[in-house]
Amino acid sequence: MSSRRRGKKKLRILVSNDDGIHAPGLAVAERIARTLSDDIWVVAPETEQSGASHSLTLTLPLRLRNAGPQRFAVSGTPTDCVMMAGIHLLKDDLPDLVLSGVNRGFNVADDVTYSGTVAAAMEGAVLGIPSIALSQAVGGRDEETVAIFGCAEIHGPPLLKRLVEIGWPKDVLLNINFPPVAPSRVKRVSVVAQGQRDQSMLRVDERVDARGRTYYWIGFKRIFSDPEKGTDLRAIYENNISVTPLHLNLTELKEHQRLSALLDGPVKTLTSKPGSTPKRQPKSQKDEPKGARFRGAEKT
CA-CA distance, 120 to 46, in Å (whole number)? Predict the structure, then answer.
């Protein structure tokens, strides 16, 4: 721990997002971060980058603008922002925690593969920094009467404090979604799996501009079907806070075992007749190493 941080607040926290440096949700994330520490750095995109996923800017130069004390805007993606912070701005004293968000709109189910919010947390995990993605569901039943980020603002601080105390593997990022209801209506924190969205909810909206040219909007209908129990979709449907641990390793281990038994071997066996080579029994999988766990409360 740096000698500059000897006060009661010890964590260095990097805050980023995909909605941009001026987004209201970023200010909410900053306030949540300040309940954990007084050493907060903000590095966020100059403009909105929703749907940027884990993309990098490789064909254009990046511009870094100083937007205030320990606050920077980057002319790139959320991943660019976290890389800029970890490899350049804070390379000599890395953050202890990355918070990405608070996104306006949930990031559940298939959203996590598109989300720039999740990608910023993912890049934090790539750099070996414990990371959390925060998203606030909107467009729900209470949208007219409840402040959009009210649920995240009230429940975010105690939830993150508890998570820092508990700790989690550094190669795992946590995806947290807050439901679109008044904070008082939230009853549970649900640790759930990533769900799968009903693809019938996907739509391509065709329109015509003033010059008669066709253009399109892509998105999902804001309708809940009947989400599977134990998933992030179900948690939000039931007005619970969802917490989903996501791993950077996308290997499907069961299918890896099956294919290894049927396919792994010399190239010449590819032209052999089916059944001419004996099938090997799948090897037993050992438990994956848990890795070093982050426990902010243990820092000195």
Answer: 14
CA distances, 16 to each of 32, 80, 94, 132, 222 (Å): 13, 10, 15, 10, 26
pLDDT in tens, 76-105: 999 999 999 999 999 999 999 999 999 999
| Ordered domains of the chain (ranges, CATH) | 12-196+227-252+289-298 (3.40.1210.10)
Beta bridge partners of 189: 241
Q: Give the tens place of pLDDT for each residue, 244-256.
A: 999 989 899 999 9
Angle at 79 between CA 196 and CA 29, to 5 degrees: 80
Q: Give the whole-angstrom CA distance, residue 83 versus residue 104.
A: 23
pLDDT (tens digit per residue) in 132-167: 999 999 975 444 445 899 999 999 999 999 999 999
- Name residues whose C-beta falls within 8 Å of residue 102's C-beta, 6 or more positions apart in sequence: 17, 25, 26, 28, 29, 32, 134, 135, 136, 149, 152, 156, 178
- The tokens for 102 are 């608070």
Q: Give 122-125 contacts, CB < 8 A, sequence gap 24+.
A: 122/54, 122/79, 122/173, 122/246, 122/248, 123/54, 123/78, 123/79, 123/82, 123/83, 123/86, 123/98, 124/14, 124/82, 124/86, 124/95, 124/98, 124/100, 124/173, 125/170, 125/171, 125/172, 125/173, 125/248
What is the tens place of the pLDDT at every residue in 258-297? 999 999 999 988 987 766 655 555 555 555 455 556 666 5
Q: Give Dmax over CA atoms of the chain in angstroms.
A: 71
